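Lab notebook page, bench 4
Experiment: in silico fold of construct C2
Operator: M.H.
Input chain length: 646 residues
Purpose: comparison with the prior construct
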Amino acid sequence: MDVFARIINRRLAGVERSSAAAAWVAFMLLAAALLTAGCGSSGPVLSSSGPARGNSAKVTGVVYGGQQPVAGAEIQFYVAGSSGYGAGAKALASAVYTDSNGNFAISSSYTCPSANAVTYLIAIGGDPGVGANNPAIMLMAVLGPCGSLDSLSSIVINEVTTVGAAWALAPFLGPAGEVGTSAGNAQGLLNAAANVNNLVDVSTGAAPGPLAPAGAVLPIAKINTLADILAACVNTSGAGACQSLFAAATPSSGTAPANTLDAAVDIASNPANSIAALYAIPSATAPFQPSLGAAPADWMLAVSYTGAGLENPTSIAIDAVGNVWAANYHSSESPSWVAELSATGAPLSPAGGFTGGGLNQSYGLAVSGSGGVWVTDEVSPGVNGGHGSLTVLNPSGKIVSGTGGYYNGGVYFPVAIAGDTDGSVWTANYGNSTASHLSAGGSAISSNSGYGASDLEGPVAVAVDAGHTAWFADQDNNSVTSISSSGNQIKTYSCCGDGPSGIATDAQAASGVTGHVWTANFYGNSVSELAFQSDGTVAVVSAGYTGGGLTRPNGIAVDGLGNVWVANYHGNSITELQGAAGITPGKPVCSSEGFGSDANLVEPYGIAIDAGGNVWVSNFGSATVTQFVGAAAPVKTPLLGPAQLP
């Protein structure tokens, strides 16, 4: 998957260095002795809050290639940029060099641009114990917020920390380790950096990380295998295994990487590429264990989380700070509840979830612009004749919609909900095939009978486009229906394979086109595409794209660059398709089985993408949600209308 245009063409050559090994290493060792001599901490350190100011906390560590120290490696200390993705990183201090044991120390004063600015280290070149400089070496360790550096112990930079950095920060990484985000997505980058600490421990150079929540299932063997692939290149003079790595990591129609970090990002960004060739690179005595015993189906890194009240989770959504919310259907015999996890998967709701407010048989969930969490209650005992209601929680999990929820505006067995940029919400009412439109405060915009009674046929999903029009997946007649914000314009389009069950919109513009609607067709094992024409008409581009593991697809989401992601309820996998801006829209980017066959997916139901580029999936058949780390283009959250790159 080519996540950004800059990634497509970012495979620039790394730092070029002389291969005259003996003279080069001798010079580096001398430089290391001069630059690191007498280093000590002095002066105050930057606190985690307050304005940026000078910092002189010493950053120390060691560079390893596999289990061998790397001598004479150049160490660069960076802070991520904020002027664009994969760009704008700045050095915080002068470069230093590792000594003969791979040790380094950065003690010069530096200024944090902000307490939450993400910092990281890059190690370039050096002798990994072979008596020669390896110009292909580029390794990385993410340190985290600049204001928290005084809490770090000594840092290990090796292949494992490089894998953690490359996968978690893939959407933000440019050529040769340049990390940057947009001015509006500092939170997404900060959360992505925090996820590194789930995958790897930068104080030991091993997986898993120290902050992985209890009960999390991490792909430790896959992380080690990826590290072994890089180590096969690092522990050489730069030929042989490096050339095999660079050839296998080269994206389709892309440029070959010239260093190990760019190779890692290429693999992370193209997880279905050259699987067998990459798996064959490490030797039988590879340094990081345990490792995989056979080639994986893909190079995705997926983490499954539990707790917080997760049980039969259905719809899933992300709030403005990256926290993950999931409705839990549970059963028809008892009330439902809502689970909340942090951006790194830690439980935020109680062990039994957030309860009350009429939560019952809950399938749909959406986060509004004000941070309210709206949940559909398909059945609501004691109110609305038992025909369902909407429960709203504030960002702290407190019920704010009363004991029975909202049920005006024609709410009738609601099963799905979506928010708009104007603060309003739309529901799909399966019970009487209508739609309800409510204000941010729960007041009815639609009439007491709702909208679309003669047009909708079994609506089970809803999404909103850039013009405030709501789109409904009509499962019973294989169509989609659009309803204008006022309810005055209603149109139905026959389009969608068999049994459309999920729906998403994008704002990908092209000549004569202003956006698209995508549906996941449950019984047709396909995805349909419709295009908004600039003249106001809607064209059916495809009634059903197939392949890529589409098997009873249900949840569907679009990422910040328009790529389409689908949860396969009976395939226990996810599928990625090229979006409308792709070279071949609708073409699977993944293998024929989809992504995630080793990701512990069980009846994946809902799917959402956060501002760090993580793809989150709810597993209805188990008490978990699964995070595909750094797999997609970031999305501005909460999702209001079509997906946007933040």
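Observations: The longest strand covers residues 513-521. The radius of gyration is 25 Å.
Next step: discuss at group meeting.
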